[in-house]
User: Fold this.
Amino acid sequence: MCGINGIIFKHETHPNARSWVLTMNVAISHRGPDGNDTWEGDGAVLGHQRLSINDLSDRGKQPILNTDGSLVLVCNGEIFNYQKLRAELERDGYNFNSYSDSEIVLPLYQKYGENCLDYITGMFAFAIWDRQLRKLVLARDRIGEKPLYFYEDENCFVFSSEITGILALPFVTKTFNEMAIPFLLTHKSLPAPVTMYKNIHMLTPATCLIFEEKKMRQERYWNMDFSRRNSKKKDYLEGYEAVIKESVQGCMMSDVPVGVMLSGGVDSATIALTASEVDGGIQAFCLDSGDNCGSNVEVERARYAAELMNLKLFETRYQAPDFHHLKAIIDQYGQPIWALEILFADIFAKEIRSKVKVVLTGNGADEVFGGYSGYSHLPIRQCFGYLAPYVPLIANRVFGSKANDVLRLLVASRQPVWAARGEVKTFLARQLMQKLCTSEFNARWGSFEVGKITKEITQISNPQSLLDASRCADLMVDHQHGHSSIPDISGMRHGLEIRSPFLSHKVIEFATQLPSSQILPFPYRARDTKHIMKKYLASKLPAQFVYKPKLGYGYGVPWNEHLVGKHSSFVREKLLNGRYLELGVFSKEGVAWALRENKLAVMMLLSFSCWVETELFGENHAQTKNSYLEIPAV
Assistant:
C-alpha cells in the first residue's frame, strides 16, 4: 500500500506545481513511511508515498516509467496475480526493471488499454499519465478497498488517495456539501461519489476515470452479476475450497511478514486455517475487551480457534478512549464516519503493526456469502411484500399510528427486488431528517432521494431475490465503511496493509453463481446463513465451533457505556451546545430526541460535530481536550 497524488494542468503548468504535489505527499505521508518521490512533465505532476511490501529495494520506487518513457504510473495497493501476468508479459518480450507488483500495470495498459483492468486481481487505485496523448487514466479496484478522490476547476484536475491531500493545496477551498447530510443519516460512511465537500468527489469502486482534452468521463468496468446461476454443478465445496485457497495464497504474496486477524468466527477462522496451510508459522491477532463486559466470549473463541490450528495468538487489550480523542480519530478519515468500530480499529492496527506489516482479515464474507442474521428474514419478507396492497385495513388495526410506516416498508418490499433497499434508505432518511434537522433544512432536502445510489448499483447486478439485492447493496454501498474506509485508514495510519481474501472478484463471482440453497437453505434460519462456508469449515474444525452464534470483532466493547455511561456529560454538552449547530442543519430539539431515543444517531452527531469543528471551524485537539476536562464525568 502507498499513497498517490497528482495534478494535471489544463493550460500552462504552474511554477509551483512540484512543490504543491510535495505538499500533498506530506499531507498523506503516513500512508507511505518508506519513501516518497515525484515526477513532472508535459503538464502533469505525479507524487507517491511508499509503503514497501514487494521488492523492498530502490527499484520498487514510484513513480514508474515504461521502457520508452511514454507512460508514467503511480499505484496504491497490491496486484495479487502479478507473478502470472509478469510471466505472460515476459514471454511477449517485455523487460521489467524490478520485482514490484505495481510495475505490471504499465505493460498491461500498453497491451490492452483501459481493458487491462479485466486482467488484474487485487486491491488498488492507480493513475497512468499518457504523455503522448496527454491523457490521464484513474482506476479503483472492484470493491473499493483502496480510496481515490478527485477535484476539478477551470485550471486543473487533481487526485489523491485521501481528501487531506487535495485540501493541502492552496487553491482548494472547503465548501460544505449539504447534500451529503441525507446520505450521512443512513450510511455510516458516505457512499461514493459523495463527500462532505461540494468540489471534491470519490471515485466509485470498479470505475475507470479518463481525463483527456480537458474533459472527464467515467466508465464502469465490473459489476456483481446474479444472472448466471449454476444450479447443475454438484461439486460446490470443491469449487469453494479452490477459489478461497487461490485468493488467500495471492493475499499472502509479500516480502515482509504476514499475519491474520482472528475473532473466533467463521470468516476469520476460514482465512486463518487456509493461511496456516500455506505458512504454518503465521501469527494471529485478536481483540480482548477485557473487563468491559464480564466474560469475553470473543477472545475465548479466538483462543480456542488458535489452539485448534496451532497458531500463536497475540491479544490486544481494548482500553476505552477518552472522547476528546474521537476528534483525532475522525480527522484520520477526513470526513464524518459513525461506525463505532473506529474506536478500536486504530489501536488494534497499531498493535498488529508492531509484529507484522501485512495482515489478512475475514472482511466481506458476510456480504459475499450472505452471513448476516437479518438475511434469514428476506425470503419471507419478499413473500409478504406481494401482499402489501391488500392489507391496509389489517395494518391499521394491528399497528395503529405506526401503520403508515409499516406499509411503506411493505410497499418497498413489493418494488422490484433491486429497488427495495433504496426505497427503504430514502424512507428512513426522510424520517430522520424530520426528527433531527431544522425546518429550513427539511424544506431544502426533505424530498431528496438518498436511495438512488443504492438502486443504481443494485439494479445492474441483476438480482434474482431480495437476498441477492441486499448482498450487493451491502457490499458495494452500505457497508463500505467496514471493508473499505476503516481497514484502509486505520491500517495506513500505522503502515499496516490489511488484505481481505473474501473480497477477491473471483470469490465474489463464484458466490453470485451459487444456487441460493448454498447461501441460505430452507427453512431460512439464521444458523444456516453462509451455508457453504460453514459446511466447508465444519469438515475441517469441530461443528460446535462452526455453528455457534455470530459475534465478530468488537463484540465485547461496551458501546452503550461510551455513549450514555461515564462519558454522557461530555456527549450531552458536545451535542446540545456544539458549534456544529451554527450550520443550521440539526436542531437542538432533534439532538435532544437522539439523546433520549437513538444511540446510533448520537454517534452520527458526535462524528459530524467533530468533523465540523476541525475542518470548518479549525478547532484543534487541545481545545477539545480542555473542554472535555472541564465537564465533570457522571
Notes: The first strand starts at residue 2 and ends at 9.
